[in-house]
Amino acid sequence: MTTEMTAPDKRPADAPETARGGRIYRPLADIVERDGTVTLLLEMPGVAAPDVEIALENRVLTISGHAGTARPGRLQLVHAEYGEGDYERAFTLSEDIDPDRIAAEMKDGLLRVTLPRAEAAQPKKIAVRSA
Questions:
Q1: Distance between CA atoms of 71 and 74, rounded to whole angstroms?
Q2: CA torsion sign, 105 to 106 to 112 to 115?
Q3: d(Cα 54, Cα 77) in Å, to the nearest integer?
């Protein structure tokens, strides 16, 4: 899988303004491969599942989400490093990913995107016979 990777930090992007007026953050991401499946793990705190958008066009997987203000109700905020804004990141997928079986799940601020490899791209085990 080819990925668009730059410095892994959560600083605002160069163009910090959006149509909503908030910042754009690049979420931290881990990429794991196991049993013919590539999994993307993206840190997107404050983003609810309905606020995540995932699009695939021309092998480019674009993930975006909006984090609203998460101020504690009756508590006084002493320090905050998470802010309101949009998360956005794009990955270029290799052709062996099956686009019809891509799945995503958001839980506790962590987005898990499962990218199964196509059956034709799965490793095959060749039996060796003794002569």
A1: 9
A2: positive
A3: 32
